[in-house]
Design goal:
GO terms for molecular function: phosphatidylinositol transfer activity. This protein has a two-stranded antiparallel sheet with strand order 1-2. It folds into two domains: 26-89; 91-125, no CATH class. It contains four helices and two strands. Helix content is 38%, strand content 4%. α1 (27-41) packs across α2 (55-64), α1 crosses α3 and α2 (55-64) crosses α3. The protein has helices at residues 27-41, 55-64, 69-86, 93-100; strands spanning 105-107, 119-121. It has 134 residues and is mostly helical.
């Protein structure tokens, strides 16, 4: 015979979920901390929009690193250096147009699941040593 008797649990557990996407109340202080660390440790990084003193960009990196000042400083430093080395500030509509005309990439006919444009890159048409963005 098979028993179909169900036993009720004897202990009740309460679980809580904490969202990491909720910003702490002191975000302005965290942004100031990141700025101070960058000024002391990375003062050769550029200033201005997308630089080491760009409040909005700093806040974005803080959110991305779950409000860890150390992690945000590290990732932000790498990002600013990459932008400088790659020459992001030299990109123009004309340089992007020339790159698009190579056929290496094209816009897909459909949007992604969030309604954003999809860029398809054909790796076989990419030659890393051949690049002129200016």
């Amino acid at each position: 015979a098979v028993s179909t008797h169900y036993k009720k649990p004897t202990k009740v557990f309460k679980l809580g979920i904490r969202s990491c996407s909720v910003a702490p109340r002191n975000t302005h202080r965290l942004v100031a901390e990141v700025k101070e660390k960058l000024e002391k440790e990375q003062n050769s990084l550029p200033l201005g929009k997308y630089g080491r003193d760009d409040d909005q960009m700093i806040l974005w990196f803080l959110k991305d690193r779950k409000y860890s000042v150390e992690d945000a400083v590290s990732k932000l430093t790498k990002a600013i250096r990459w932008r400088k080395e790659f020459g992001v500030s030299k990109l123009s509509e004309e340089s992007v147009k020339r790159a698009a005309e190579t056929g290496k990439a094209y816009l897909h006919n459909y949007l992604d699941s969030r309604g954003r444009a999809v860029l398809v890159v054909e790796a076989s048409k990419h030659f890393p040593g051949v690049r002129n963005i200016s």
